[in-house]
Amino acid sequence: MAKPTILILIGHYLPGTLTGGPVRSVANLVDWLGDEFDFRILTADRDQGDSAPYPQVRAGEWYSVGKAHVRYLTPCRTSVVRTGCGAARDAA
């Protein structure tokens, strides 16, 4: 039987550390319940305040991070209002 899926939308996630509490809280939740639930996390491809993405991730792809599947998105893909985002950058 498949595990129930939980989708989490969070501004920043691992490997980021600059946001502090929220990242640690979600990481702990996933660690505790990851055997019972299929966690899917959508988050930014960079840490809080960073202008460059994490070097080890490619935006738009799913990665296994601990017991979760994480999809990192460009700032254009995480924003509700897409001001100043070009079509090429927004494609990821």
How is the secondary structure organized here?
Layout: E1 5-9, H1 21-33, E2 38-44, E3 62-65, E4 68-73, H2 75-78, H3 87-90
Parallel strand pairs: 1-2, 2-4
Antiparallel strand pairs: 3-4
Features:
alpha/beta; 92 residues; 4-stranded mixed β-sheet
* Low-confidence spans: none
The shape is: globular
**What's the average pLDDT?**
88
Structural class: alpha/beta
Write down how many β-strands occur, each being a DSSP E stretch of 2 or more residues: 4
Give the N-terminus to C-terminus distance in angstroms: 33 Å
Strand content: 15-25%
| Biggest beta sheet summary | 4 strands, mixed
Helix count? Answer: 3
Fraction of residues in H or I helices: 10-25%
Secondary-structure element string: EHEEEHH
Using only CA atoms, what is the Rg?
14 Å
Strand order of the largest sheet: 1-2-4-3
Outline of the structure:
This protein is 23% helix and 24% strand. It has helices at residues 21-33, 75-78, 87-90, and strands at residues 5-9, 38-44, 62-65, 68-73. The chain is globular.
What this model shows, in words?
This protein has 92 residues and is an alpha/beta fold. Helix content is 23%, strand content 24%. It has three helices and four strands, in the order E-H-E-E-E-H-H. The chain has a four-stranded mixed β-sheet with strand order 1-2-4-3. The N and C termini lie far apart (33 Å). The mean pLDDT is 88.
